[in-house]
Specification:
By secondary structure, the protein is of the alpha+beta class. The protein is 31% helix and 23% strand. It contains 11 helices and 11 strands. Strands 1, 2, 3, 4, 5, 6, 7, 8, 9, 10 and 11 form an 11-stranded mixed beta sheet that branches. The longest helix has 14 residues. The two termini are 41 Å apart.
């Protein structure tokens, strides 16, 4: 008599975090703008109520280390002999926990953030194909809009940006990618102002445009020229859109555009005023991606990903979109 055993298949679980993400994208290496970007990063890491020691790690090293007393990002880069001329990407991560509790280091290693997290990734062109480097910070949700605007103005003065964005963002920080993207797709269906920021695909896709309409957008002159858009013309159009809730400011060769006075999650079942997002999307329509590299789960399908990209210009298509497990 054969003995049969039953194996219980446990459901896949994932950790998805909603963060206030501010990301700067640059065409080419970070090194020429090292001092300015380091000052921007120091300012970003000072926001919020994080009081723990500043931790860092390079590339994919598993262990976090504490920076030296009073050490900012520029001194850290100099101490680490920030490499030049590498073929592959170079990455530095920094994390200031929400408290000085030593257990917070373990939380960082597990991808559970309670403070301010920043990463810098330099990506040289690959086989002659351009791709973008980035500097990104995850901030506590209580950071006010005026602090984000100040970060945007500082970024415009710190480096020659391709583009940048600041918005409440969904991020997969652990567990099953398929489960994470299934959960994120369901959230995006309800919360229209949440962003989905996949830096691994945006290093390529971001050369062509923004993945969606964030709350705050930074547009560099070089990026605008690549899209045959004149900065002065866009400034004039932004001025005309001010009456529809669009806020704007020009800082040097960078245009900052905000969809309303403060970041929203965009709950379509709530009472949030989303008209500024639609107005800003109309203003920047030619700069937004119409296609995105497939992700995973439901977001691997263009039948889901494309309607999400176009949700402000064609809301009915996204409302009607059916989210499956993918």
């Amino acid at each position: 008599m054969a003995i049969q055993s039953k194996t219980r298949v446990l459901p896949a679980h994932s950790t998805v975090r909603e963060v206030l993400s501010f990301t700067l994208w640059l065409d080419g290496p970070l090194r020429p703008w090292g001092r300015g970007l380091a000052d921007w990063g120091d300012l970003a890491l000072s926001l919020g109520a994080a009081t723990g020691p500043l931790l860092y790690r390079i590339a994919n090293q598993p262990d976090w280390q504490e920076t030296e007393d009073g050490e900012g990002i520029l001194r850290l880069l100099q101490r680490l002999a920030y490499p030049a001329g590498r073929f592959g990407p170079w990455r530095l991560e920094l994390y200031r926990p929400g408290s000085s509790d030593p257990l917070r280091r373990q939380s960082a290693e597990e991808g559970v953030w309670d403070g301010v997290y920043l990463d810098m990734v330099e990506r040289p062109a690959f086989a002659g194909i351009p791709r973008l480097s980035h500097v990104r910070v995850w901030l506590p949700p209580e950071v006010p809009a005026h602090a984000l605007t100040r970060l945007g103005e500082t970024a415009a003065q710190a480096a020659s940006l391709w583009w940048g964005s600041a918005a409440p963002t969904l991020s997969h920080v652990g567990g099953s990618r398929i489960d994470a993207h299934r959960r994120m797709a369901a959230k995006l269906k309800r919360y229209w102002a949440l962003q989905l920021e996949d830096v691994e695909t945006l290093q390529w896709d971001g050369v062509q445009g923004l993945p969606a309409m964030p709350w705050l957008t930074l547009l560099g002159d070089a990026f605008l020229k690549s899209k045959d858009v004149a900065l002065a013309s866009l400034v004039e159009q932004a001025s005309q859109a001010s009456g529809r809730g669009v806020h704007w400011r020009r800082v040097g060769d960078t245009l900052l555009v905000a969809a309303g006075p403060t970041p929203l999650r965009g709950d379509i079942h709530g009472q949030e005023d989303l008209a500024p997002y639609r107005a800003a999307s109309t203003l920047l329509e030619d700069l937004l991606l119409k296609e995105h590299t497939p992700l995973v789960g439901p977001l691997a399908s263009a039948d889901v990903l494309t309607p999400w990209l176009l949700r402000w210009s064609d809301p009915a298509q996204w409302l009607d979109c059916q989210i499956s497990d993918g």
